[in-house]
Amino acid sequence: MGESPVQNHWRSVQDHSRSFWDFTYVYPVISRRSRGLSIGINLNPDKICNFDCVYCEVDRATPPKSRVVDLLKIRAELAEMIRLARSGKLGEDPKFVEAADLSRVVRDIAFSGDGEPTMVPNFDECVRIAVEAKRAFGLPEAKIVLITDAAGLDKESVRRGLALMDANQGEVWAKLDAGTEAYFKTVNRSSIRFDRILANLESTAKARPIVIQSLFLRVHGAPMPAEELEVYCARLRAIVDAGGRIAEVHAYTIARPTPEPWATKLTGDELESIATTIRARTGLPVSTFA
Ligand code: SF4
């Protein structure tokens, strides 16, 4: 991957708020990982997640805008956001002035949000809305990205949604922040078993290449222990050895304030050192986002 055209200090990069104008579900961001405009669809306006990551930046103190997933409204908001982007109106918003040119080109439509997108019961119908928008607006190059904690990748409606994504420039960006169950429980604080996450990553990666997204941080001052990093690398190798395809690893660290003051960011050098270890142990390409 060449140098990103996106500058880290831009307001549109720093501010990943999922509230934009009077939209309920759809929000625009300039994303370093997408290398431009990503139109997010927040499938969790209820802010529900099956993880409770120590670094989660979702503001759960503010009441949710909505508790339901209204497909008609998502469809209308997505169309409106694409129109705003392509007309240049989005670039006139103060948040996007530094990225006015980039904000005209839809790089991807991303299922993300204030919780875990695969928790909705009809994920496949949500994907269909993105597919139809791509067709209606002539966006064959735009990806459909699922940003997921991997816990729901074994659900039927999610498998159907992934198949639709596969036929429409889909990409799965799946979280893996740990090598052991103990570290998983420490960082992601989920009641879901770690072996289910690993099995889901493996079976999903066998069906199409996936991107692994891993957040590395300090927990009470300590970065991921060396032995934990070794096990993490072994987990990635196990997926590949089983026939899974990992296109890339995104290694990143905390960018914004966290609810837990003891969960803090790594330095750029520390993150690069971890990336070097992952490359050496797995042979996989690793991009860092410090
Ligand atoms: S998976 Fe994402 S939304 Fe859920 S707690 Fe973790 S960071 Fe927050």
Task: State the main characteristics.
single chain, 290 residues, alpha/beta, TIM Barrel, 8-stranded mixed sheet, two-stranded antiparallel sheet, 9 helices, binds iron/sulfur cluster
Structure in a nutshell:
With 290 residues, this protein is α/β, with parallel strands linked by helices.
Written overview of the protein:
The structure is a single chain. The chain is of the alpha/beta class. The chain has 2 domains: 1-172, no CATH class; 176-290, Aldolase class I (TIM Barrel, Alpha-Beta Barrel). The protein has helices spanning 11-14, 71-87, 89-92, 123-136, 156-166, 181-187, 194-207, 226-241, 268-282; strands spanning 26-31, 36-42, 106-112, 143-148, 170-175, 210-215, 218-219, 246-252, 263-264, 286-289. The protein has an 8-stranded mixed sheet with strand order 1-2-3-4-5-6-8-10, with helices on one face. Strand 4 (143-148), helix 5 and strand 5 (170-175) form a beta-alpha-beta unit. The two termini are 16 Å apart. The structure holds iron/sulfur cluster. Iron/sulfur cluster binds at residues 49, 51-53, 56, 58, 115-116, 149.
